[in-house]
Amino acid sequence: MPVTLNHIIVHTSDAMASATFYADILNLPPPRRLGHFTVLQVGETSLDMIQTTENIASRHFAFLVSEAEFADIMNRIVVRKLPYWADPFHQLSGQINCWDDGQGVYFDDPDGHVLEVITRPYGSGGPHAKHPNPLLAGSSQ
């Protein structure tokens, strides 16, 4: 059996609200309760939201989607008037990126976790893409 990623625990201030936010924005099935977790299924991996009153350290979650799904997600981001950026450092506000000749966007969840939606995996366009991923700069590819 190959190794697969089964689940990731995500600390939240309100587990059901966060899981519902992800489900709504990404058009995923509604979350379900499992013990003290609120579970959101993302393909074969689940995000297991757990509620805490402690400070929450921001994490980064990237989701690979089709071009049509990206358009639908962007529409939901715009309708909700959520701030979004073309970069993970929140410098290019109100923009999307075209890295790897696809599309990408960053936005925050209610607890400050950075969510990324991309249509092409990092580096998949290679160094000769019209818009190469900036991570390829200086690499030996």
Helical content, roughly? Answer: 10-25%
- Over all CA atoms, what is the radius of gyration? 16 Å
CATH architecture of the largest domain: Roll
What would CATH call the homologous superfamily of the largest domain? 2,3-Dihydroxybiphenyl 1,2-Dioxygenase, domain 1
Order of helices and strands: EHEEEEHEE
Strand order within the widest sheet? 1-4-3-2
> How large is the count of helical segments?
2
What do we call the CATH topology of the largest domain?
Answer: 2,3-Dihydroxybiphenyl 1,2-Dioxygenase, domain 1
The low-confidence parts are none
Describe the oligomeric state of these chains in a short phrase: single chain
Give the CATH class of the largest domain.
Answer: Alpha Beta
Characterize the biggest β-sheet.
4 strands, mixed
Residue fraction in strands = 25-35%
Total separate domains: 2
Distance between the termini: 31 Å
| 3D shape | globular
What's the number of extended β-strand segments? 7
Q: What descriptive keywords fit this protein?
A:
alpha/beta; Signal recognition particle alu RNA binding heterodimer, srp9/1; 7 strands; globular; 2 domains; 141 residues; three-stranded mixed beta sheet; single chain; 2,3-Dihydroxybiphenyl 1,2-Dioxygenase, domain 1
Q: Can you tell me about this structure?
A:
The chain is an alpha/beta fold and 141 residues long. The protein folds into two domains: 6-50, Signal recognition particle alu RNA binding heterodimer, srp9/1, CATH 3.30.720; 58-141, Roll (2,3-Dihydroxybiphenyl 1,2-Dioxygenase, domain 1), CATH 3.10.180.10. Helix content is 18%, strand content 26%. It is built from two helices and seven strands; from the N terminus they run E-H-E-E-E-E-H-E-E. The protein has helices spanning 15-26, 67-79; strands at 7-12, 32-34, 37-42, 45-51, 60-64, 104-108, 114-118. The strands form two sheets. A four-stranded mixed sheet has the order 1-4-3-2, covered by helices on one side. A hairpin with a 5-residue loop joins strand 6 and strand 7 (114-118). The chain is globular. The mean pLDDT is 95.
